[in-house]
């Protein structure tokens, strides 16, 4: 496992050096500074894990990203300033979350009970009874949740956030369209609530072993029905899902029920992937003509493919221009377009884009002549946007039930959003 | 949360100043804030490897007993860092630590235990033993968990002392603990110990394995990973057991932590070796595909790891990922290492049904900016032509279109792959020779030059001005690299054989250069060889030089069966990033092998005698352990590493432990055995030559495998046969 954790700033100065095994010498810091300097990078620091053994690489990367998350949870963000301002606390954390290089409990909620920033002091950790409570928490089956949480008003917010990825060829064929979704939950619930969560999904599995489960789940379609009927019946096929550690995976595998005791506050309940029947919110039709070696003409049409009741915000279309572009002129039917020489892009921004609307940009780039003419690589045109109350996969939350001993009632809110992941159109 | 403003303390300080600061404050300083600041400065200096701080040892130890956990933790950190430099000064801290291990507060007990076991000083290690035994039975699970790891730490400090004590037995007994976190920690500790000693074997029986799987759900994500890793030590004795366990582990594939996902894949792949029913294997393989693809939505480092492992898993179980080729199409913004690996997977997954889509995609890549990536894309097109015969024409057309863009590096790359296509399909596509030759002036890289010279030589009788073209190159013969010189020599001889009148002036000149005016032994040897051949018997010379060549294949990154098996037992580890035999990368790593059992599936009958040798001794050891098996798992210590029960199999023995994947006739077992023997030798030599560094990640260096491999990753892989020791073989065949 890990022999040490090091943090460097951009200049290669060592900010944190914690060794867990005797094969991790201070000299290592110099080796990294002189010979390596590469990823994994975050903000303006380098996080480095060192090992001499054939360690579980997935575990190492996951841990480093967890460390970043932990830093964000403690200090707001993890950058050079935060590290320098809290270096003692970081050492304290590292000592706690790694033992002999093996990651231990890394749940921020539990850790914050006994490793705190100076304002709060390690007060509760001083009496033995409190300490046992902490240790039970840190080693217990539900290390992510304290038992004594109380809220006057019990609320749960569910955010379904989808990143839609598109890769369209120059001829207009969809090379790839898929959705990476995440369901983020903010739970403000008293006690130890048991939640059950239902979606209009139908997991893609061997038909033989879904038959039983499929009937018991929502939707109208019978088992073995084709994709079309399923889509018509309002259910979505998820290619794969991954769950937060609080979800009982055995239960999900057996009868497809998402059942869990949530951590307090915000967490990512699940991630999923869908590739069938992806609704693309925007259709883009670019026409790009290179005229001789001195001019490129653009005509880009973009149409919103969702209900007229909805509107997307912050729609940004990036239209690549050749590297030797001198000047550009743009005309748009909506929004503003501007040439950004540093990115070799024409950036067209439409702050509010109503459903079914269609806008056009006409532009012209004048090129400087070059002695060494090299073909332009034509990078793809890319889009970013966010669209509320719309899911590209068609996923909907069917229900969220909360069960707790005291039987309180709770309020649940659901919000849907679709964003552009990597939404690229070649031309 | 407010962030502490400690940045100003992060500065170099002088020992004397810090000492005064540490002693200041006195009674007025109630919260010891002055001392805290001084200690923080010391910790900062420690990080900046300001080793003067060692001088403050006595002062720091004095602070250790102050009633503040924060101060204590800083003092402990100082101690862990510097006690090796000043063991005698550190000793003064020992009583405090021992006392703290008996503290009422479980957090303090665990902290002291954790700290003392980090210190690599004999007295500290010795002083840990007794308290550790007590703390292993502490009533607080947090302390027990810490104690479990502590055994592995002590084992790192002093193997002998731990082996001579009963610590490992005690640790073993802790597997019965009712707390899942403790159990997972014990397993992590046991596996760690197993990895550092040849004399210890770890055995888990079915009942224990089953119990471990049942507590998976109650462990943290890391704990789950430790348990899954430990399950690799369970050897199924019955195929139904293996299946049942695999099906219970499969739900873990939905975990959001990629370590859990990949380690689950590892265990599943391992268990599949013991499952007899092909149908179940296929269904398990299918379950692995979606989670692997989902990992592509993770940060690039994890993506890369997942992709490298996909390359591995695909070779072992081709049914995985079969229908998923589109997800491996590159995004414009992917980092280059992700793109190149995706390209490799695309190549592996291309079939004659999806070739059109793939070719269109590759053409797109060939117009990107990154030269490195463009070259790989062009090379991939050429490799596809070789892999899928029915699509060769389509690939060649794509290549020629790209060549027409006249971008120098594309032309060069295309020339090289077209040469390979000619080799694969002789007398089929010669119509394009003219097209290739027309770009001859654009070539300035040795590999491309050698390729075009090969084409000129091979088709000297069809190219009108072949002698003229060769003469142009010969004019600068002495300035060329050896690679090009070798190609020129062979091409000139070929020209002479096919068109004696045109070549008769060139040959003597080139032979003279090669035999008299060069320092390169390969060039000289080949020169003499041709000379003798031509002067003795021109007819035979023609037969030899223009004879039929063995076909080439395009299977790059194809691991030899032994390495493949080894890596499949290590899915998700660092070795899978390199995709090299583990000993080349981690010399100290303890090898993991497929353990024999009645349930182990071997589709093809192997060389019986070799297998028996591997079979017998472990079977005996199994019998011995299963009887003494009282706890959840058993770990056996034998002080004497030569004990026959636990002796590792002799590493040089030519056992091909797994079936050779299709393509070879069943009776070629003997050849396989021989091949794997030589492969083995090759890799050992590599290891002893210390070549196991960070090459490009291809297996080209791994000894004598398939002889004619066109790989995409390295330009050298094909060439060593021209330039290196195998040159003699090449010479006869060209």
What would you note in describing this structure?
The complex is a heterodimer of chains A (427) and B (734). Chain A has 427 residues and is of the alpha+beta class. Helices cover 21% and strands 41% of the residues of chain A. Chain A has 9 helices and 24 strands. Chain A has helices at residues 27-36, 57-75, 80-85, 87-97, 108-114, 128-139, 207-216, 227-232, 249-255; strands at 4-9, 14-19, 41-42, 45-50, 98-99, 102-103, 155-168, 174-188, 194-199, 201-203, 236-238, 240-243, 258-260, 265-274, 282-291, 295-304, 311-320, 325-332, 336-340, 345-354, 358-367, 381-388, 397-403, 411-425. In chain A, the strands form 6 sheets. A 9-stranded mixed β-sheet of chain A has the order 12-14-8-7-24-22-17-20-19, with no helix packed on it. In chain A, strands 2-1-4-3 form a 4-stranded antiparallel β-sheet. In chain A, strands 15-16-21-18 form a 4-stranded antiparallel β-sheet, with no helix packed on it. In chain A, a hairpin with a 4-residue loop joins strand 19 (336-340) and strand 20. In chain A, helix 5 (108-114) runs antiparallel to helix 6. The longest helix of chain A has 19 residues, at 57-75. Chain A is globular. The relative contact order of chain A is 0.13. Chain B is mostly helical and 734 residues long. Helices cover 59% and strands 1% of the residues of chain B. A two-stranded antiparallel sheet of chain B has the order 1-2. The longest helix of chain B is centred in the last third of the chain and has 20 residues, at 608-627. The radius of gyration of chain B is 32 Å and the shape is elongated. Mean pLDDT of chain B is 79; it is low at 604-634, 636-671 and 673-734. Classes of the chains: A alpha+beta (427), B mainly alpha (734). Chains A and B meet through strand 2, helix 2, helix 3, helix 4 and strand 6 of A and helix 2, helix 4, helix 7, helix 9 and helix 12 of B.
């Amino acid at each position: 496992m890990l022999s040490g954790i090091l943090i460097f700033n951009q200049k290669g100065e060592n900010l944190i050096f914690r060794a867990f095994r005797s094969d991790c010498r201070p000299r290592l810091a110099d080796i990294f500074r002189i010979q390596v300097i590469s990823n994994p990078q975050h903000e303006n620091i380098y996080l480095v894990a060192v090992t001499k053994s054939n360690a579980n690489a997935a575990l190492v990367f996951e841990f480093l990203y967890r460390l970043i998350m932990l830093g964000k949870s403690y200090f707001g963000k993890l950058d050079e300033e935060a590290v320098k301002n809290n270096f003692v606390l970081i050492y304290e954390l590292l000592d706690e979350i790694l033992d002999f290089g093996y990651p231990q409990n890394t749940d921020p909620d539990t850790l914050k009970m006994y490793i705190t920033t100076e304002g709060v002091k390690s007060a509760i950790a001083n009496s033995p009874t409190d300490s046992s409570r902490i240790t039970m928490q840190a080693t217990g089956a539900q290390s992510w949740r304290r038992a004594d949480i109380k809220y006057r008003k019990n609320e749960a917010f569910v955010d379904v956030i989808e990143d839609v990825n598109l890769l369209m060829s120059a001829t207009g064929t969809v090379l790839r369209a898929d959705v990476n979704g995440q369901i983020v939950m903010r739970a403000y619930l008293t006690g130890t609530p048991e939640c059950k969560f239902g979606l209009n999904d139908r997991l893609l599995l061997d038909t033989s072993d879904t038959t039983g489960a499929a009937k018991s789940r929502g939707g109208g379609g019978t088992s073995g029905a084709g994709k079309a009927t399923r889509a018509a019946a309002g259910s979505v096929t998820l290619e794969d899902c991954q769950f937060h550690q609080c979800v009982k995976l055995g239960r999900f595998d057996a009868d497809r029920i998402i059942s869990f005791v949530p951590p307090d506050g915000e967490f990512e309940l699940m991630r999923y992937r869908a590739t069938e029947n992806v609704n693309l919110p925007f259709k883009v039709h670019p026409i790009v003509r290179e005229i001789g070696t001195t001019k490129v003409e653009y005509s880009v049409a973009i149409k919103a493919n969702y209900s007229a009741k909805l509107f997307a915000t912050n729609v940004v279309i990036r239209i690549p221009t050749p590297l030797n572009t001198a000047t550009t002129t743009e005309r748009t039917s909506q929004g503003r377009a501007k040439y950004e020489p540093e990115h070799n892009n024409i950036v067209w921004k439409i702050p509010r884009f109503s459903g079914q609307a269609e806008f056009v940009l006409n532009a012209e780039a004048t090129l400087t002549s070059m002695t060494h003419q090299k073909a332009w690589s034509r990078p793809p045109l890319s889009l970013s946007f966010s669209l509320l109350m719309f899911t590209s996969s068609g996923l909907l939350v069917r229900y969220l039930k909360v069960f707790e001993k005291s039987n309180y009632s709770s309020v649940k809110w659901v919000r849907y959003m679709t964003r552009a992941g990597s939404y690229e159109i070649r031309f | 949360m407010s962030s502490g403003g400690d940045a100003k303390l992060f500065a170099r300080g002088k020992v004397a100043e810090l000492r005064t600061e540490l002693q200041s404050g006195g009674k007025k300083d109630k919260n010891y804030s002055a001392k805290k600041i001084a200690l923080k400065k010391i910790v900062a200096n420690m990080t900046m490897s300001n080793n003067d701080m060692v001088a403050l040892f006595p002062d720091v130890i004095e602070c250790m007993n102050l009633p503040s956990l924060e101060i204590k933790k800083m003092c402990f950190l100082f101690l862990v860092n510097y006690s090796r430099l000043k063991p005698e000064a550190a000793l003064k801290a020992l009583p405090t630590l021992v006392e703290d291990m008996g503290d009422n507060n479980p957090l303090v007990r665990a902290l002291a235990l954790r700290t003392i076991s980090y210190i690599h000083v004999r007295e500290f290690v010795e002083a840990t033993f007794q308290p550790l035994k007590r703390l292993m039975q502490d009533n607080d699970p947090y302390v027990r968990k810490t104690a479990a790891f502590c055994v592995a730490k002590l084992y790192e400090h002093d193997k002998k002392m731990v082996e001579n004590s009963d610590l490992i037995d005690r640790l073993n007994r802790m597997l019965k603990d009712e707390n899942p976190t403790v159990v997972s920690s014990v397993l992590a500790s046991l596996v760690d110990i197993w990895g550092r000693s040849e004399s210890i074997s770890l055995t888990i029986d079915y009942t224990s394995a089953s119990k471990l799987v049942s507590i998976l759900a109650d462990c943290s994500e890391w704990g789950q990973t430790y348990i899954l890793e430990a399950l690799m030590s369970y050897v199924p004795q019955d195929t139904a057991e293996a299946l049942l366990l695999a099906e219970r582990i499969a739900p873990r594939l939905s975990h959001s932590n990629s370590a859990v996902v990949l380690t689950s894949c590892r265990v599943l792949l391992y268990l599949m070796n013991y499952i007899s029913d092909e149908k179940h294997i296929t269904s398990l393989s299918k379950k692995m595909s979606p989670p692997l693809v989902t990992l592509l939505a993770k940060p690039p480092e994890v993506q890369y790891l997942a992709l490298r492992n996909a390359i591995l898993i695909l070779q072992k179980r081709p049914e995985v990922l079969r229908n998923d080729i589109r997800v491996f199409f590159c995004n414009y913004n992917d980092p280059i290492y992700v793109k190149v690996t995706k390209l490799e997977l695309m190549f592996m997954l291309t079939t004659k049904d999806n070739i059109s889509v793939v070719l269109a995609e590759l053409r797109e890549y060939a117009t990107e900016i990154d030269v490195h990536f463009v070259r790989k894309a062009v090379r991939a097109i050429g490799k596809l032509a070789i892999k899928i015969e029915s699509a060769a024409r389509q690939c060649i057309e794509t290549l020629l279109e790209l060549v027409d863009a006249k971008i120098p590096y594309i032309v060069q790359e295309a020339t090289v792959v077209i040469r390979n296509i000619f080799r694969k399909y002789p007398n089929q596509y010669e119509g394009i020779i003219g097209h290739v030759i027309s770009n001859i002036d654009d070539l300035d890289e040795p590999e491309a030059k050698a390729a075009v010279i090969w084409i000129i030589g091979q088709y000297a009788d069809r190219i009108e001005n072949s002698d003229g073209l060769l003469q142009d190159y010969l004019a600068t013969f002495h300035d060329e690299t050896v690679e090009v010189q070798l190609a020129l020599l062979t091409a000139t001889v070929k020209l002479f054989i096919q068109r004696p009148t045109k070549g008769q002036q060139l040959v003597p000149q080139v032979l003279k250069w090669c035999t008299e005016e060069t320092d390169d032994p390969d060039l000289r040897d080949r020169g003499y060889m041709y000379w003798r051949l031509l002067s003795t018997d021109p007819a035979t010379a023609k037969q030899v030089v223009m004879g039929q060549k063995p076909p080439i294949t395009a299977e790059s990154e194809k691991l030899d069966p032994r390495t493949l098996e080894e890596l499949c037992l290590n899915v998700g580890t660092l070795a899978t990033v390199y995709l090299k035999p583990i000993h080349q990368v981690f010399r100290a790593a303890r090898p993991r092998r497929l353990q024999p059992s009645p349930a182990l599936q071997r589709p093809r009958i192997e060389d019986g005698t070799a297998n028996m040798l591997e079979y017998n001794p472990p079977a005996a050891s199994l019998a011995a352990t299963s009887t003494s098996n009282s706890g959840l798992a058993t770990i056996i210590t034998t002080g004497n590493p030569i004990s026959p029960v636990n002796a590792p199999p002799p590493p040089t023995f030519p056992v091909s432990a797994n079936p050779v994947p299709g393509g070879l006739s069943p009776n070629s077992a003997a050849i396989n055995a021989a091949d794997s023997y030589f492969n083995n030798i090759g890799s050992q030599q590599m290891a002893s030559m210390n070549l196991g560094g960070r090459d490009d990640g291809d297996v080209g260096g791994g000894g004598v495998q398939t002889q004619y491999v066109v790989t995409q990753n390295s330009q050298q892989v094909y060439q060593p046969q021209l330039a290196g020791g195998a040159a003699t073989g090449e010479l006869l065949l060209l």
